What we know:
Blueprint: H1 44-69, H2 78-98, E1 102-120, E2 125-147, E3 150-164, E4 167-172, E5 179-186, E6 196-211, E7 215-225, E8 229-231, E9 234-262, E10 268-270, E11 277-279, E12 283-286, E13 292-295, E14 320-322, E15 327-354, E16 359-368, E17 371-377, E18 390-394, E19 399-411, E20 416-437, H3 440-454, H4 459-465, H5 467-478, E21 483-506
Antiparallel strand pairs: 1-2, 1-21, 2-3, 2-4, 3-7, 4-6, 5-6, 6-9, 7-9, 8-9, 9-15, 10-11, 12-13, 12-14, 15-16, 15-17, 16-19, 17-18, 18-20, 19-20, 20-21
Amino acid sequence: MKFLPKFLFKCSALLLIPAAASAAGTYYTGNYQSPQTNYSQRSYTQRTRTSTYSQQGVSDYNRNQYANAGYVTNGRSAAQARNAGATQQQKKQVVQGNEKQGFCLGAGISRQTSMWQFEMKESDSILHYDNVDWNVFDVNAGYKFSLGNTGMQIDAGFKYGMQAGESTMIDDDITNGGYYVATWGDDTDDDGIMDVIYGDQMGRALSIGTSKDGSMMEFNAGIGLTDFFKWGNVKITPKIGWRYLKYELETTNNNGMAIDTFTGDGGCIGVPGSDEVQCDPVLIFYDNAGNSYLASRSDTNADTVIDLNDVIEVPDGYQYVNTGGTYYYGQPGVSHKYEVEWSGPYFALDMLYDINQNNSVNAYVELGLPSYNATGDQPYRFDWQHPKSVEDDAGVGSAFHLGLGANWSTAITDSVALSVGVTYDYYTVSDADAKTYLNEAYYTGVYFDRLENLYDGNEEEMLAKDEIANNIVKLEQDCPGWVCNASGEIEAFYKSLGVRVGINAKF
Length: 507
């Protein structure tokens, strides 16, 4: 391409309520009779009344003493019992407070399906990797703590993925444009300037290859206000942080076709009765003196219309033909290789809904403003070379990231839970700058070859007559150090949908 640029325990308080209980030898209840009572002259009735009186009176007395002195059956005072109850209540409050403090760890595996595409605005070229599957392993950790009256948490995560199976890469310079090759015209007065411009020679290509053996890596770190506000029964934690995503993709078994076409009259012709347009490949004819002639259809049947009924005529004396950049190619090895990075700050909302003490649902929404950088090695063009062909760049805040996710968790033990969920990510950037690293050796080789073989070393004459040599000189001027810069040239996006299974622990 011409310019190229990615988370049981529950503490139940035991309330100790003071209660009176009978205990032998603790209190006098009136049932005990001294030996003197057995020799008393009082009647049974008297004894009974006395016993009844004593029982009631002493019992009332004891109840009164219990209420005022606080005696209890276990020897503790009511004040002590109240203090014990209060202590337990304090313990309950401490335990409940600690439910929002402590460490958590998690790990999981996921399968993600993704797509990456970038588009060049002026060169009208698109390249995309479709249905890239990742097998991803992730780990995460967090710590919740109190800061004054505010609950806070810090967390971090790491992911590493390997590409699963094969996917398709399409490098498309046909449906959305092509690349400039040369301008054709005629210098009628031999002053080195084209007096008549016939049109441009444009290159168009389409290649399809296999993508495999890619890898991806991601990490993030953030800080938030735990359960800062609620929406009904949903607890919401706002967070800020930094996220970094990097993936590498490469293409093998790449096959394609390239064709040079002519934009002038007779180059492309509409098919009658259809909106189809057909473009003939460029045919460049040469004579023995090295003069070139670009052949195209002309109005050979004199019907004032250039159409498919016209033929391509070649002037006399032109003996051989060159099809320009029209050819088929196959590349069994690595033809494309890209390293893409998205990195920057984000704001997120974590939402938690407790279904019951064993099950919960959590979800998150994340909005980020990352930077974008893509480095590509794309050597199949004749003017590019390893190890770096192109580089696209946009600073922090130039791109956008939307992250969504939801998980259902169920407790396995008091502190361990199983989770199942889905994730979605979408990254996009517009107006990224592009750099193209040209192969200096190629262009200088063409320049000096023409100088020696066509003009006998006369550079002045060559620059006065030779358009190709002048184009090379201009290219070096426009691309200092053989690096061409194009501002705002790149639009790109990366999207991914995944299913995840994980395990979480709190302690």
